[in-house]
Specification:
This protein has one helix and seven strands. By secondary structure, the protein is mainly β.
Amino acid sequence: RVGCESHGDGGAVAGGVVLGWLPGHALVQDYDCCDQRYAFSTYDDGFNGDIDREYDWRHGDNYGTFRPTREYRDGNYICRDFHTVNYRNGQRFERDGTACREDDGYWHLR
């Protein structure tokens, strides 16, 4: 899209979610570069919000949902499992994942 560019920020942070932990992570590939800030802001809301609540994002014709499904401890970290469904250019992307709040205070995908 015009006006959008990826700067290759391997450790970029959007909302409170670290994006660059795994270059090419499947979840990041579900979004257009212009949509990422909307989606990851919603992820941040979900990681810090209620379990089993659906959080929505929309940017133009692309949109999606994020639902944290479970919270638990893994050693010293609080972790959350989540489910996402996203639509980009009419294509559906559905994924499950886990993120943990690490010592830096950010949620890191695993």
